[in-house]
Amino acid sequence: MLIKKRQQDVVRFLEANRIEFEEVDITMSEEQRQWMYKNIPRDRLPSQGNPLPPQIFSDDQYCGDYDGFFESKESNTVFSFLGLKPSMASKKSEP
User: What is the mean pLDDT of each run of 10 residues along the chain (95 residues)?
Assistant: First the structure.
């Protein structure tokens, strides 16, 4: 339940800020799960077990986990966390 809530929190933030993203469900793809595990830097892996979703990437670049995302949201540095410039978010208004 906590994992789903955290995933929804990230998705809502990205949608609200019109940041393009692709949500990948690693429970449906062993290949995607292995890619995620392989692309998280060793020093960012948990001491025990596998890293839990959500894990956040910008293209192939690892950004961090939910805790890192939450901290960046609290300190208003999410664009930097995601490796984006604030101007990269779409400024289009709703039709």
Answer: 94 95 93 94 92 94 97 95 75 46
DSSP codes joined into one string, 25-45? -TTS-HHHHHHHHHHS-GGGS
Greatest CA span in the chain, whole angstroms? 48
Write down the pTM of the prediction. Answer: 0.83
Other CB atoms within 10 A of residue 75 CB: 10
Distance between CA atoms of residues 56 and 52, nearest Å: 11
Please, what sign has the CA dihedral across residues 33, 39, 40, 41? positive
Q: CATH topology for 2-20+28-45+53-88?
A: Glutaredoxin (3.40.30)
Which neighbouring-strand residues pair with 52? none
**Amino acid letter at 14?**
L
Domain spans, the chain: 2-20+28-45+53-88
